[in-house]
Amino acid sequence: MSLRRTARPLRLLAGAALLGGALAFTAGAQQSSDGGSTRTGTSAKTAAKSPARKPAAKPAGESAAARKARADSARNAELAKRWPVKGPAPLPGSILPNRRIVAYYGNPHSKKMGVLGELPQPQMFAKLDRETAAWNKADPSTPVQQALHLIAAVAQGDPGKDGKWRRRESPAMIEKVYGWAKQKNALMFLDVQIGKSTLEEELQVLLPYLQRPDVHLGLDPEFAMTKGGDPGRRVGTYDAKHINHAIDVLAGLVTKHKLPPKVLVVHRFTGPMVTNYQNIKLDPRVQVVMHMDGWGPPYGKRATWSRFIYPYPVQYTGFKLFYHNDTKAGHPLMKPSDVLALNPKPLYIQYQ
């Protein structure tokens, strides 16, 4: 069962079965990644350290709309300087930035968690091929690498026998989806919703799969209850230290097993989901994707991108498209050309 937040804040109720996906957009200011309330991406902490400046003189007769447009233009010019992120050069065998990953997300145990599970395998493959063709046509300079993104640890609406509020996917199901990926020469991503477990504990279970050269990792802060609460009743969070732990694990596997670099996808659609983003370390053995994971109309998705992805550059970017939730109010699903109009152009595209 997928849980979402509408424009009017609501209490979130956990489903009795599987939880998955992202909450939608909330109106008003959101807490920044550094803990301050902001609309611009400059945290209260950072602002407190900035030298005092006199407000710029207002041109005579300038309207409020014109002042806002001038301020927005100055902000965007400043943010544009942060992209592309200066990081380590890609190692041989790296997927990004020369290819764009197009992934189908979900879990075969549920038709409500995503297209990976909603459709029978032949129909799913045919639909993925159509999306691949559309993306290749829209941007032939960045050929598509297909992927299947399996939720391998699924947050639950009750504690379970071990009190961890998560269900681990069976080895048999992981191998089944991995077999599907091999048939398509696709990558496989294992997504982790830790509930009240720990990232260290859940990654340990997945090591046998992550040692494979075509298996990569996704982290979902929404259901990481590192600061308390129950999955689905509040949005969870990861700090940079958690993400750095995953980077260290993946980098160690790359070195030990002589693997090509791994891709790490981190979901995000609010500020507090990822704290201290500026402390996320870049390692050439791990390519980090900050993934815009919220549903709604195109204008809402662009707004979330501009507030929670664009102002907080880490390395690469991703964008999620929801076949049902993006369109349920009659709005169109964003086309590849719409997504490619974003700056920077997302290199990881996920369909749910």
Automatic annotation (TrEMBL):
Residues 29-91 are annotated as: Disordered. Residues 69-81 have a biased composition (Basic and acidic residues). Residues 29-50, 57-66 have a biased composition (Low complexity). Keywords: Signal. It comes from the Bacteria. The keyword Signal applies. This is Lipoprotein.
